[in-house]
Amino acid sequence: AAVTAAVASSARAAAAAAVKAEEEKTKHRHDEFHHSHDRYPPHDKYGLQAKIALLEARLREQEVTHKLERELMEKEHREHLRALERKIEALERKFLESKPPPSEPSPRKTEQPQPANPYPPPHFPPGFYPTFGYPAPHFMLAPPMPPPPMASPGTPGADIFGSQ
Q1: Euclidean distance between CA atoms 17 and 37, whole angstroms
Q2: According to the UniProt record, where is the region Disordered (predicted)?
Q3: Comparing C-alpha atoms, which of 33, 26, 31 is closest to residue 57?
Q4: Which helix (H) or strand (E) holds 20?
């Protein structure tokens, strides 16, 4: 963490020095421009060119800073992943070393034989469900019966009892 802080602070210092140098150059150019145009009104009356140059320099500094910070974060992330991988490898080695050799009997509980099932498998007579043991419903035993013929209303002698 101390190394990363030192790298970040040195990166910021380098970026700040670059910006300061750019500001000095811009100021010098600005002064030269005004001295050479003393007789005429300056084209950059309000120092807009200098402000633009300053803002561009700050933007470049910000880009450099962001780039350095991103690289630093990626480096820290890679280091963290490597540390996790080393930790995993160490734990795997420890686990393999602590495992007893296969020739030794394992300290696990030995399996006891299961007692025989006291209930014999059920026998299902025909007409019973093989899974539930209930009598089969009527639709499984015989085909459905057709409905009885109905006499049309008004036919003499045709009633439900068949009497005439």
Answers
A1: 30
A2: 21-44, 92-127, 139-164
A3: 26
A4: helix 2-36
